[in-house]
Design goal:
It is a single chain. This protein is mainly alpha-helical and about 160 residues long. The chain has one domain: Helix Hairpins, CATH 1.10.287.1700. The chain is about 85% helix and about 5% strand. The chain is built from two helices and two strands, in the order H-H-E-E. The chain has a two-stranded antiparallel ribbon. Strand 1 and strand 2 form a beta hairpin. Helix 1 packs antiparallel against helix 2. The relative contact order is 0.13.
Length: about 160
């Protein structure tokens, strides 16, 4: 009996490597998007706290210099939040591209694995048919010869 061979095995191995590479790129992009999200959230939290501080200072009265300094901090935080939002959007776009790349690589690998499974099933059925034919021929030969086994040289 011959051993099953899938002619596209090398391509399947390449697809597995491509999928693993795409999975790594997806994980890195997810990490980057998570980092960008945390950075933006931290800036927004700092903005809320600074805004609360400004409100408190305005209610309880303080000198104009201190109010102006807090307002400047708020303005800078707003600029940083805008930059962080842009970075987050870019990271999420990259994540979306990497996710699509991973899904494509996964789909291509699965298609080859399904083809391999179908070819293996067909090979198994054909092998079983050949084995059955051989067994049938042996049984027929024994029946025709009255149950005697034959060797190359004659009867046993």
């Amino acid at each position: 009996m011959s051993e099953f061979q899938f002619r596209l095995e090398t391509l399947l191995e390449l697809r597995l490597e491509a999928e693993a590479t795409a999975a790594g790129a997806l994980a890195a992009a997810q990490s980057e998007a998570d980092h960008a999200q945390r950075a933006r959230d931290d800036l927004e939290r700092a903005h809320r706290q600074t805004h609360d501080q400004l409100s408190h200072l305005q209610r309880h009265g303080t000198d104009a210099g201190r109010l102006q300094a807090v307002r400047l901090v708020l303005e800078r935080l707003e600029e940083n939040i805008e930059e962080a939002e842009e970075a987050l959007q870019a990271a999420q776009t990259e994540l979306s591209h990497k996710r699509a790349g991973y899904h494509r690589a996964n789909r291509e690998r699965r298609a080859l694995e399904e083809l391999r499974a179908k070819r293996h099933d067909a090979w198994s059925r054909e092998t079983a048919r050949r084995d059955q034919r051989a067994m049938d021929e042996i049984a027929t030969t024994r029946h025709v010869n009255g149950g005697r086994r034959l060797t190359k040289g004659g009867e046993v």
